[in-house]
Specification:
- The chain contains 5 helices and 7 strands.
- It is an alpha/beta fold.
- It has a domain of 88 residues: Glutaredoxin (3-Layer(aba) Sandwich).
- The strands form 2 sheets. The chain has a 5-stranded mixed sheet with strand order 5-4-3-6-7.
- α1 packs parallel to α5.
Length: 143
């Protein structure tokens, strides 16, 4: 697990190395774009299922904190959003688009177990809404 310091949209510090709960990180390219909006809204629809696994869910993009906050509020996303404006989180997770030449993240999902070990990785740039379903399936298989 990369040793990165995360601050979520509520200003809380997030420790991914020993979260005590399963954690799902959804990296996505750009807030308010069609596919990213579809992806985050689908994940929001699955919120109860993620809660049933006691999983913490985070959306991460290279958008600014203000854009992330607006995106979360506009679409009533029930999970924290994390701004990775400098690209360091994306770099640590290997989620930078074109080695960091573009200021966006790849569309990738990580499922991390309660001990801080990455147990699942999924990348699909085309089928954005598949990420929530794949993460849930990974949580189910971990039981």
């Amino acid at each position: 697990m990369p040793d990165v310091h995360l601050i979520d949209s509520s200003g809380s510090s997030v420790n991914l190395r020993a979260p005590g709960h399963p954690t799902v990180l959804f990296f996505y390219p750009k807030a308010n774009s069609k596919y990213c909006t579809d992806e985050m809204r689908h994940i929001a629809e699955l919120s109860e299922e993620f809660r049933s696994h006691k999983a913490l869910v985070y959306g991460i993009s290279r958008d600014s904190e203000d854009v992330q906050k607006q995106f979360k509020e506009e679409f009533e996303l029930p999970f924290p959003m994390i701004s990775d404006e400098d690209g360091e989180i994306s770099k640590a997770f290997g989620a930078r688009m074109l080695w960091g030449l573009l200021p966006i993240s790849k569309r990738v999902t990580y499922v991390i177990d309660s001990g801080g070990i990455v147990r699942f990785y999924y990348r699909n740039e085309v089928n954005a809404v598949s990420h929530g379903d794949k993460a849930l399936a990974a949580l189910e298989s971990a039981k």
